[in-house]
Amino acid sequence: MAFVSVIAVLALLVSAEGSVGPSTNASFCTESKECLEYQLVCKTDEYEVRHYSPTRWVSTDAEAYFMGVGAAMAFRRLFQYITGANNAGVHMEMTAPVLVKIPEETQMWEPTIYTLSFPLSAAYQDQPPEPTNDKLYFTEMPEMDVYVRSYGGWMLSVTSRLHAHLLTKELERVKAPYNSTFHYGVGYDSPLKLLNRHNEVWYVAEGEPVCKDPQEPTPAHTPHPTPTQLMADSPSDPLPHTLSELPSLIPSNMSSNEPSDSSSLLPSDAPAVPPSHPPANLSSDPTSSQPPPSTPIFLDPATNSSEVVSTSPSLEPQRDDTWNSTAGSSVDAEVKPDDAQ
Fold first, then answer.
1. Dist. CA 276–CA 287, nearest whole Å
2. Is a pLDDT exceeding 60 seen at residue 95?
3. Between 67-82 and 157-173, two packed helices, what is the crossing angle to 10 degrees?
4. What are the backbone angles phi and psi of residue 102, rounded to the nearest 5°?
5. How far is CA 32 from CA 24, 88, 139, 288, 297, in A?
6. How, if at all, do strands 39-43 and 98-103 pair?
7. How far apart are CA 31 and CA 196, in angstroms?
8. With b meaning 16 or more CB within 10 Å and e meaning fewer, what string describes 244-275?
9. What 8-state DSSP symbol labels residue 123?
10. Predicted pLDDT at 225
């Protein structure tokens, strides 16, 4: 029994010492020699869940109207501590990330208390030197699961609030329980780094973390049919039953067994020579060039040919004296100038 107790104590010590280690487990923790280690539980399109072991931090509070102002004042105190402002006068390595505890309920006209924390390096996790500034104190961070949302750029009040809102919106959608009284703003880069910055928003999970979407598949992930699938699923187009459904290849006033009118091939500026007799398919109305819309034209089902079969009353050509008289008068009008010469 005593042997089991010793093994348990050793395991706790190893886990505590291993919670802060070399910056090799994350590509975004590159400026510090030691970084807070974690275990990735799961990852979705909007957030990831991490498991952190118990760690010890050095912390201080700052009261300000904006997070950036408070974080700057608190950062100066913490940096003085790791650079010798402690009772042992030792210099400690800068670790990452920098944690800012941000209350959820804040008022625009009242200052807010922000808590800034540095994780102690692995060598000082058990016995850190006491700070000389009485505004600094040690924080025991318990074992916890956190929901994490990452973003780039600078960690400002506006950007931190924006990504915190987006994370809480997604957590509420998937019905994930979390501590809604505060969240952490997390930074990994020094103020001198301008590009490829990495920031995070943390919410501490309560109970079992939610890693799956209970509404799968969500509407945003519903697959849409491709054009190839639409063509394969759609039935083939039926063959047309009437000539009116086919694209017109010949003028509507010419039948298949009539010779083409050579006058239509003349240039547009050539003088028009009226025909000696009216076209066979003209009706009594000389302006009409289309068959009546109420007269459908069908293919001959008996012979299966393209001969036009008309179901309308007889459209036999009739002699139009009015048309001839008009044509004759136009010819006479054209001949009169020659006679006058």
1. 18
2. yes
3. 100
4. -120, 120
5. 10, 22, 21, 90, 86
6. unpaired
7. 12
8. eeeeeeeeebeeeeeeeeeeeeeeeeeeeeee
9. G
10. 53
Tokens standing for 216?
A: 């799968």
Burial (CB count <10 Å: 0-12, 13-18, 19+), residue 73: middle
Is pLDDT above 80 for 249? no
Q: Is the per-residue pLDDT at 318 higher than 60?
A: no
Q: Among 36, 77, 80, which Cα is nearest to 200's?
A: 36
Single-letter amino acid, residue 37: E
Q: How wide is the angle at C-alpha 168 spanned by C-alphas 197 and 115, nearest 5°?
A: 60
Answer whether residue 51 shows pLDDT above 60: yes
Return the structure tokens found at 298: 């069908």
Question: Once rounded to an integer, what is the mean pLDDT over residues 297-303?
Answer: 51
Q: Pick left, alpha or beta for residue 61 (phi over 0 → left; psi -120 to 50 → alpha; otherwise beta).
A: beta
Closest listed residue to residue 133, CA positions, set 88, 80, 89: 80
Tokens of 284: 């009594």
Question: DSSP class of residue 147?
Answer: E
Contact of 113 with 61, CB cutoff 8 Å: yes
Q: Which residues contact 177 (CB under 8 A, 6 or more apart)?
A: 205, 206, 207, 210
pTM value is 0.58
Report CA-CA distances (Å) from 33 to 78, 94, 100, 118, 258.
Answer: 17, 7, 20, 14, 95
